[in-house]
Amino acid sequence: MRDLVVGAVVGLLCAVPVLAVQGMPFGWYSLYAGVAGVVVALVSGHGRSNAAVVASSGVLVGVLGWLLVVLTLEPLLRGETPTWSATAVLQSYPFLVGDVLHGGLTGLVLAVVPNVHKEQPAREAARIVIVGGGFAGVAAAKRFEQLAARGAPIDVTLISDSNFLLFTPMLAEVASGALEPAHISAPIRSAVAHTRFRNGRVRKFDTGSRTVQLGDDVIPYDHLVLAVGSVPHSFDLPGVSEHAWTLKNLADSTRLRNHVIRQLELADSEPDPVQRRQLLTFVVAGAGFAGTEMIAELFDLVYRTAHYFPGVGLDEPDFLLVHPGDRILPEMSAELADYALERLRARGIRCRLGVRVAEATADAVRLDDGEWIATNTFVWTAGNRPSPLVGAKAIATDSRLRAAGLENLWAVGDCARIPDPDGTYYPPTAQHALRQGKAVADNIAAVLSGREPAEFRFRTLGLLVALGHRTAAADIRGRRFSGLAAWLLWRGIYLAKLPGLEKRIRVAFDWGLDLVFPRDIVVTSPDEVPR
C-alpha cells in the first residue's frame, strides 16, 4: 500500500514539469499520471533498484500508456474506431513525447525516493524443514519458494530418501512395461531449484529440541513439515510381508515386471502342468485403484508378450483379484464399480469378492475361506500405513494442518489424518496432497507474520481408474465416463499433471510406441534373486 501511495504522488508531481514544457492542461492527465506512477512503482519498486532500470521501466510504461489511452481509449470514448494508423500516430506524437518524458522522470524519482521498508529491522529467517519428497512435500517447497520471492523471511530445507518426485498414479504402467521408469519421475533438485535439498533418510525428530536427525547431522528447525507418505501394511498376516510384491516405488514396479517375464520364460519350457499353472497364476489382493489397475496391467503385459513364448497357451494364464468388500473400487459410485467389474471379468480376470487373503507362502496364497491358490506372483495392494517415522498411526492434525497439541509441527499427505468438514478425513490421494502442501506453506507464512492460519478445505475434483485395453472409468465432479472416452480422459489428465514438459513428451512418446509395437521382454536385472 505504501508503494501505491508513493507511486501515485510521484506520478502527479512529475506531471507538472512535463505538462509545463509541453504546454498542455493538467485536467484528465492528472488521473493518468497518478495511475502511471502506481504502475511504475509496482513494476520496479522504489529505493530498491538501479536508477537506470527503474527509469527504463518508466519509459516503457509511458509508451504503453500512450498506446492504450491516446491511441485506443480516447477514440473509443469519442465513439470512433481506433485505427492505429500513421496519421493517428503523427497527430498524437506530442502526447507520446509527454508520456515518455513523464514515465522516465517518474522512474528516476522513484529510484531515489527512500524506501520505508528499509527502515524496518530485518527479521531473522525462519528455519523450515520439510521431510518427504512426494507430492505434498514438493508442493510445499514450491510454495515456499514463491513466498520467499515475495520477501518472506524463510530458510527452507527439503529432506527426502529419494532424489526424485515420483508420479505414483502411473506405477502400474511401469510394472507392465508400457512406460519407462525414469519417465514418470522428476529430479527434486530441478523441481525446487531454490530450495536446499538433502538426500537421506530421517531416523527421528525431536519436538522438544526442535531438531531432525539425518545420519550424523542434527538439523534444527523452527517449523517442521512431515510429508513422509505411507508404506505397505500387511496387518501381520502370516507370510504376506515376506512373500508379497508391493507397488510403492520404481524399484517395486521394475522388479515386478522382471519377475513376470521370468515366470513366462520358465513356463515356456516347463513340462509339469502343476508347475506351469503355478507359474502362470497371478494374484492381486485389494481392489482399490492400485489393485484394479495392477491386475489389468498384468493382464496386458502377459497377453501383449505372449507371442514371444510359443510354449505358453493363451488359455493358460490365470488372473485373480481378491477383495474383502462386496464390490470393487469402493471409492467410486456403484454404477462405475459395476462397470469396472464387468469389464475385468469380460477380459477373463477372475474377481473374488467377500474374501480376504489369510496367509502367503513362497508358492501359494490361502484365502480366509480355506482355499489355497498355487502362485509365484502375489501382489499386495490391500493396505497401507504411515511411514515408520511417525509411528503406527497417522498424525492427527487440526483443520489448519497443525499436529494436535504442537505449535511448530505440521503434517500433510498420507502420513496425516486431516479432518474434513463432513466429519470424515481427507483421503490419501495425490490431488489432496498437492493442495495440502501449498496450504501448509501459506499457513506457516501466516504464523510467521502474526496472522491466523487458514482452515484447509478441498473438494475432490474427480476419480479415474484405468481398466486396461483402452478402457477406463472416470467420475469428474459427478459426471461419469466409461470406456474409450474415460481412457482418453485418464491419459489426458495424467499427462497434463506430469511434472515438466520433458516428462510429458517422453510419456506421450512411450504411449505412442505402445500402440504400434509389442511390449519389451528384456529382463533388466537377470541376476536378481526371485522372491
Main beta sheet strand tally, sense and closure: 5 strands, parallel
Our count of helices gives: 16
Q: How much is the average pLDDT?
A: 88
What is the structural class? alpha/beta
% residues in beta strands: 15-25%
Task: Please report the total strand number as a whole number.
Answer: 24
- What percent of residues adopt helix (DSSP H or I)? 40-55%
Shape by Cα distribution: elongated
pLDDT < 50 stretches: 116-120
How far is the first residue's CA from the last residue's CA? 65 Å
Q: Rg, please?
A: 31 Å
Strand order of the largest sheet: 5-2-1-9-20
What does this structure look like?
The chain is α/β, with parallel strands linked by helices. 42% of the residues lie in helices and 19% in strands. The chain is built from 16 helices and 24 strands. It has helices at residues 2-22, 29-44, 51-77, 86-91, 93-112, 135-149, 171-175, 188-191, 240-243, 250-268, 273-279, 289-305, 334-346, 430-448, 484-497, 501-516; strands spanning 126-131, 154-160, 164-166, 185-187, 196-199, 202-206, 211-214, 217-220, 223-226, 230-232, 281-285, 318-323, 350-353, 357-360, 364-367, 372-374, 377-380, 384-386, 395-396, 409-411, 416-417, 462-468, 471-476, 479-483. The strands form eight sheets. Strands 5-2-1-9-20 form a five-stranded parallel beta sheet, with helices on one face. It has a four-stranded parallel beta sheet with strand order 13-12-11-17. Strand 1, helix 6 and strand 2 form a beta-alpha-beta unit. Helix 1 (2-22) crosses helix 5.
